[in-house]
Amino acid sequence: MADNTKLLLLGGAAAAFWWFYMRKPDAPATSAAAADTTTKSAAKSAAAKLPSVADIQAAVILAAKAPAEGLGVDEWGFLVNQALAPFGKAAPDPMPLFTAMFNAVNQATGQGQRFDRAMLVTAPAYWAVMGPALKAQTGLAGYGMYGWVQ
Predict the structure, then answer these.
(1) Which of 34, 43, 94, 148 sits a CA distance of 20 to 30 A from 7?
(2) Rounded CA gap, 145 and 46, in Å?
(3) What is the CA 14 to chain-centroid distance, rounded?
(4) pLDDT digit string (tens) for 62-84?
(5) Residues 105-133: pLDDT tens digits?
(6) Collapsing DSSP states into helix, strand and coil, what is residue 122?
(7) Where would I find the beta strands (DSSP E) of the chain?
(8) CA distance to 41, 56, 132, 133, per residue, from 85 (Å)
(9) pTM over 0.85
(10) Do 59 and 83 touch, CB atoms closer than 8 A?
């Protein structure tokens, strides 16, 4: 029973992390609706050309050739930026994202582990944090290969 409680707390912490740090509210309405229509149609056509999160994940994982232990977040970030560069996008800094995730897990489990850029992170662990951030901050579509819930 204790294992289920920890799992529920961890899931709750992850959901709280997403709610407070990853969710982006809609932009406020402006009075210049006519000028905004042109901008929106241009943005929609540019967004239609963007790859999905799963496409970026696949490209990064294939390029990484990562060992089972994983890679550092900066190595993953370099590869993500290489995959996003043709689309004029860049990955967010992983430090605040992973630090917030570690803080939420520590609060839920009572552990005192701290995040360090030198830590090795497996692909599923990296994308569990970075996937929703990429979707929220770059406008990519889809849920990714690991299927986190939005």
Answers:
(1) 94
(2) 23
(3) 12
(4) 898 888 888 999 999 999 999 99
(5) 888 888 878 888 888 988 888 888 888 88
(6) coil
(7) 71-72, 120-121
(8) 23, 11, 19, 17
(9) no
(10) yes
